[in-house]
Amino acid sequence: xxxNLVAAAVLAGALVLPSLAAAKGPESASISGPxxxxxxxxxxxxxxxxxxxLGALVDFGGYFSQMFGQMPDPTLKAQPKGVLGxxxxxxxxxxxxxxxxxxxxxxxxxxxKPVPLTYMKPGQxxxxxxxxxxxxxxxxxxxxxxxxxAGLPAATP
Length: 157
Hints:
This protein is of the alpha+beta class. The chain is built from four helices and eight strands. 29% of the residues lie in helices and 24% in strands.
């Protein structure tokens, strides 16, 4: 019995590892939108939970679930009800296999009520053959804090 459990765990791990290895974070991002004199360059590592501005944007903005999908799926197909407020655009540069550099766009609504929102258009092509899962993502106030630290206005422009 124990041997079967160990074998099942090893098999499950072997199936999950290739998909995790393929799920890469962006190497850079730039944000443009209202009341910004220039695009804001977001620096750091794009992997989740690493404590850099780019990592925080990726983590709090729903990047991985919008790019690669997740189970359970936290994204929504339809725009949530509420006031969106001003829209900002993030352009992520995503490194891929064979030195492919893809650009993927995510829209940010940091002043949306009742919570900040992000949106990624489904089907955006990256790495030549892959397509973004897309959808709406309900973020937390932590996303707005990260964006204000990066240079967005503290209050709705």
